[in-house]
From TrEMBL:
Gene3D superfamilies, sorted: 3.30.160.250, lambda repressor-like DNA-binding domains (1.10.260.40)
Coiled-coil region(s): none
A single MF term (Gene Ontology): DNA binding
Residues of the HicB-like antitoxin of toxin-antitoxin system domain: 5-67
InterPro entries: Cro/C1-type_HTH, HicB-like, Lambda_DNA-bd_dom_sf, TA_system_antitoxin, TTHA1013/TTHA0281-like
PANTHER family: ANTITOXIN HICB (PTHR34504)
Tree of life domain: Bacteria
Protein name: HicB-like antitoxin of toxin-antitoxin system domain-containing protein
């Protein structure tokens, strides 16, 4: 499952770009160049999605890609936390901890975007949730 949110980049008067996300209220940024705007967009998206995860807020589902929109991915730690949260579904963290034969705090850290789980931890969690870990580079 890929996590990418569509964003609109609008040229600003005097140069640069304003970035706003269609599905993530409050996530917006800008940049002097296209590259800077895209980098800042990923940072802004990571920050707000990370906050939503930490506050146990409902997570927005990304809209399908449309022509003229940019698809922005959050940073790897935020993506990992989102993927575990989504894969867990209605199961409790306690159930995940039992399946992983670990403590509840250890299972909770898998959904913490400030924590950097190892590939081994992610593989074990994916298997416990009936999934398979797949990596990609861009």
């Amino acid at each position: 499952m890929e996590i990418r949110y569509p964003a609109v980049l609008e040229p600003e008067e005097g140069g640069g770009f304003f970035v706003r996300f269609l599905d993530v209220e409050g996530a917006m940024t800008d940049g002097e160049t296209l590259d800077e705007a895209l980098f800042n967009a990923s940072e802004a998206l990571s920050g707000i999605l990370g906050w939503m995860l930490e506050e146990n807020q409902p997570l927005p589902t990304p809209s399908p890609a449309e022509e003229g929109l940019y698809l922005i991915a959050p940073d790897a730690r935020t993506q990992a936390a989102l993927l575990i949260r989504q894969a867990r579904g209605d199961r409790s963290l306690a159930e995940l901890a039992r399946a992983l034969e670990t403590s509840w705090p250890s299972a909770q850290r898998l959904e913490n975007p400030r924590h950097s789980p190892t590939l081994h931890q992610l593989e074990r969690a994916a298997a416990a949730l009936g999934k398979r870990l797949v990596l990609a580079l861009e």
